[in-house]
Amino acid sequence: MLVCILLSFLFFPKPPPPPPPPPPSPTSRGPAPAPPSYPVPPLFSFLLSTRFTPQFLRDRDLDIPEAAAKLTTALAWRADIRPGALTPAAVAGEAATGKAFLHAHPDAGGRPVVVVTAARHVTGAAPLRKTVELGAHLVERAVALAGDPLAVEGGGGGDAAAPAPTTTTAPRPPPATPPPPAAAAAFSSPDGTLLAIIDLHAFGPRNADFAFMRFLVDALYSYYPRRVAAVLLVDAPPGFAAVWAVVRPWLGKYGRLARFVSAGEVCDVYFEGGAAPAGIAGRAGREVW
Questions:
Q1: Residues 270-286: tens digit of each pLDDT
Q2: What is the CA radius of gyration of the chain?
Q3: Which tens digits make up the pLDDT trace of 214-262?
Q4: What distance in Å separates the CA atoms of residue 5 and residue 1, rounded to the nearest whole number?
Q5: Dihedral over Cα of 61, 62, 64, 67: its sign
Q6: Burial class (CB in 10 A: 0-12, 13-18, 19+), 265
């Protein structure tokens, strides 16, 4: 048997292995294989598409679905009102009433201050949208002064074009009214927040505009979360209690930011020297710069 196996190897050798196939020519080579892709869930891509995401995540205690829902509401409002594109000329009519303004001086903590004088807002005297545009313009300016440490570079103060989830975003215009360098240097908000003052002196039934109050609550809760350090309700008359009973439940957890104070407390606690708003300081008998 062994002799037969040896003879088979001698007289019937195995054929050599076939040569390897030639490499394809450059002209016949197909496209290079694409690198592996890792799809991003739509919810995450939506949250990554806007500079406003960090403040909404913090507001919702990092609950992603809740933050996305709240952010969708805010971006829809911004697409409608476009507060970053509003100019002083666009809100000049409502600003002339003196019902709301951006105070020239920061509070004692360096925060910009938005003041609403309730007695100068008469329900129905102007279209609600015009009043909302004035409020949005003032808050946008205050936010710019407070600083936006969480914004990506180039984020500016513009608005998203639409609230739809997407992996790309429309280019944002620069802020329409950037603060002057000298003015910006005077503000040093430590946490990017602002102070809101609602002067309720001489508040009466004709000033009880619940639609405008709803906007103020939505701005605090939905459009600019974590942007307001406190809301000072100054010299509220007894009749305001009925209004507050309606508005307070709208605020939810943000109700803790509201503080009923007197004009004197505003001057002594929240401002240094004579930096308090003139109308409030005058009632308190304080000197005004």
A1: 999 889 999 999 988 77
A2: 32
A3: 999 999 888 888 889 999 999 999 999 999 999 999 999 889 999 999 9
A4: 6
A5: positive
A6: middle
